Structure formats: C-alpha cells, structure tokens
Automatic annotation (TrEMBL):
CDD domains: Ras_like_GTPase. Transmembrane segments: none annotated. Keywords: Nucleotide-binding. Belongs to the EutP/PduV family. This is EutP/PduV family microcompartment system protein. Pfam families: PduV-EutP (PF10662).
C-alpha cells in the first residue's frame, strides 16, 4: 500500500514537491505516466484536467492512505470541480503551491478553490524555497502512520 497520492493540474508542482520530500535536486520533470516514487503516487496533471480520466484517479486512490490535492497559487483556473474530493475513499488534504511567487490574493483564491473542492486541511508551501515543507511533511507523516512504502 502507498501512503499519499498527489493530484493536481499540469505544472502545479506535484513532482517538485516529491523531489523536495525525497531530498532530491529540484528540476522540472513533466510526469507522463503514473509514477510510484517511494511511498508517493505521483499522477500526471492530465488526470485532473480531463474529467474522462477521473476513473483512473479513483482506481489509483484505492492504494493510498491520503490524497493530496495541489493547487498552484499562480493558476487562477478552477482546476478542481465542486466536491471533487468526494470521489475518493480516503481523506484528502490540500496544498497551495508556489506561494513564493504569488500575491496574497492569489494564495487566498487558491485556498478557496481547494475548499470548494471539499478540502478542509490546507497547507501553503513553496517546494523551491522550502517554505512550509516541514509542517506539511509532519502532517503527512501523522496521517500515514503505520503504512509501509
């Protein structure tokens, strides 16, 4: 069983966050297919951006203990539809990414998008700058206690 499944639009920072959590060199890498990276399931952004791929997300979520919905503060689209998180059989937490490059208004908008999707616990972070990573990692570890990679 895997611990966490990361979902979000293309370029929202899913893979960069995985790289930061694994203490890897941060470099842009477009995820072309589902990647099992340690205890994290890294999904392509297309899975969220194209609704006909939602069944793939639902199937993959069976192997997760928590879903991490990531909304870039720089992406002002409503990426996640209302009640998006209700399709998953496990808890979903949210991440507003790229806060180091965003205005307070952009961050607030991204948080509202996640709340509208059904997320209640939201973390603000920058994978590049390292802001908020420690708090997010601690919370993720608490949510996935007892799950092997």
């Amino acid at each position: 069983m895997r611990k966490a499944m990361f979902v979000g639009a293309i370029g929202c920072g899913k893979t960069t966050l995985v790289q930061r959590l694994h203490h890897e060199t941060i470099s842009y890498d477009k995820t072309q297919a589902v990647e099992f990276r340690g205890s994290i399931i890294d999904t392509p952004g297309e899975f969220v951006e194209h609704r006909y791929l939602y069944p793939s997300l639902m199937t993959l979520s069976v192997g997760a203990k928590v879903i991490v919905a990531i909304q870039s503060a720089l992406d002002q689209r409503a990426v996640f539809p209302p009640a998006f998180t209700t399709m998953f059989p496990v808890k979903t937490i949210g991440v507003v990414s790229k806060i180091d490059a965003a205005s307070p208004e952009q961050i607030t908008y991204a948080e509202e998008r996640l709340k509208n999707a059904g997320v209640q616990q939201i973390f603000q972070l920058s994978s590049v700058a390292g802001t908020g990573i420690t708090e997010f990692e601690e919370a993720l570890n608490q949510l996935t206690v007892g799950v092997e990679a």
